[in-house]
Amino acid sequence: MKVFMKAQGVWGAIEEDPKTVVDENKVQIALAAIYQGVPKEVLLPTAEKETAKEAWEAIKMMFVGAERVKEANVQTLKGEFESLTMKETYNIDDFCMKLSGIATNIWVLGEVMEESSIVRKILRAVPDKFLQIASNIEQFGDMKAMTVEELVDRLKAHEESESAERQQLLLASQNQRTRGAYFRDKSRIRCYNCNTLGHYASECSKSRREREKRQEVNIVVVEDDEPAIL
Predict the structure, then answer these.
(1) What contacts 24+ positions apart, CB below 8 Å, involve 106-113?
(2) Hey, is 123 helix, strand or coil?
(3) How far apart are the first and last CA of the chain?
(4) Of the residues 10, 16, 88, 216, which has the maximum number of CB atoms within 10 A of its CB?
(5) Cα–Cα distance between 31 and 52 in angstroms, integer?
(6) CB–CB of 109/74 below 8 Å?
(7) 22 and 12 in contact (C-beta within 8 Å)?
């Protein structure tokens, strides 16, 4: 109603100075705007007023309770907005959407919330894995010009970079453990081929021919103990 009356150039009928004479035509246009804007249950007591200013004040008095409820709801939403934090398991998109939803509800109730306030809140609420990038953005970024969408893109890029780095470290660790399995301590390993410590039989440097020669020598020694056989 206020916007309509300002557009019609009759808002002065509401903010009139008692000592100023207001054009009656403007008063009637302002009253018409009020009648068209209020619900039916409010129309009858409003219609009894003779001037637009009186009708406007009557509406304000009737809705003072609703204004108090609205203010209470705004304060509740602001408390929820400030206390919301992002856990390590949260998705950055889902968290920012929830935060923006609260900000939208505050705006619907008539409270103005700048986008820069949402940006700063996100930077304060992110978990430890985002602390470095959040600190850099706060120090070197244009906080007044930055949008929520731009901030989310930068946080997601950082998150993806961190994830790729963790994958590389994990792969390197697995490779190191695999290589370590081949270079483990063999000082107590006994080779059943040469009967010495320090390696497995599969790694033994003795050739198969040498093992066969040793077996032949053992046979000859045994046969020398039995006369007449040779």
Answers:
(1) 106/74, 106/77, 106/78, 106/81, 109/70, 109/73, 109/74, 109/77, 110/70, 110/74, 111/74, 111/78
(2) helix
(3) 130
(4) 10
(5) 5
(6) yes
(7) yes
Q: How far apart are alpha carbons 60 and 211 in whole angstroms?
A: 109
**Residue 190 near residue 196 (C-beta atoms within 8 A):** yes
pLDDT tens-digit map of 98-112: 888 899 889 888 888
The three-state DSSP-derived secondary structure of 22-56 is: CCHHHHHHHHHHHHHHCCHHHHHHHHCCCCHHHHH
- Contact assessment for residue 133 and residue 146, using Cβ atoms and an 8 Å cutoff: no
- Residue 33 near residue 4 (C-beta atoms within 8 A): yes
8, pLDDT greater than 70: yes
**Structural tokens at position 154:** 């930068």
Residue 4 in contact with residue 26, Cβ under 8 Å? no
Domain boundaries, the chain: 2-62, 67-173
pLDDT in tens, 45-104: 788 888 888 888 888 887 776 778 888 889 999 999 999 888 877 788 888 888 888 998
Given the structure tokens 């409820």, which residue do they identify?
Answer: 69
Q: Is the pTM of this model over 0.85?
A: no
What is the SS3 string spanning 51-85? CHHHHHHHHHHHCHHHHHHHHHHHHHHHHHHHHCC
Q: Residue 108 and residue 113: Cα distance in Å, rounded?
A: 10
Q: Please check whether residue 60 is in contact with residue 99, taking contact to mean a CB–CB distance below 8 angstroms.
A: no
Burial class from Cβ neighbours inside 10 Å (0-12, 13-18, 19+) for residue 134 reads: buried
Tell which residue, 158, 165, 102, has the closest CA to residue 135: 158
